[in-house]
Amino acid sequence: MEIERKFLISTLPADLNTYPFHLIEQGYLNTDPVVRVRRQDDEFYLTYKGKGFLAREEYNLPLNREAYAHLISKADGNIIRKKRYLIPIDDSTLTIELDVFEDIFAPLVLAEVEFSSIEEAESFTPPAWFKEDVTNDRHYSNSYLSSIDLTSQRP
Asked: Domain range holding 139?
């Protein structure tokens, strides 16, 4: 079960480049249900996600480079590329996953925080540099971003 909240941010942390990060590329084979392929650095996955925003089923299966290359070529819509910074939250076991989108989705930046329970997610107080909670706004889901026509709208 994936339990996460998603936020827009007001400003990037000044020390952003001091945090570890992953380079992510992903494409969607289907958006309802979500079936995604992802390259994260040198690891490759096929992911199934159930319905929902705050909490939903998620299954990850490892792929090899060749299978990923084959499947990403079949992805519908936009391929998403982003740099994901891993920022620990002080006095907590939680980590902010700060996604800085590249290419066609720049300058979009989203912060995600994953939780071990719905109660923990609902009681979370975001840092001051977080703005609007967009957890339940489908327009900020990666599967939605993959499907929009960028010639007519922006996220």
From this structure: 2-147
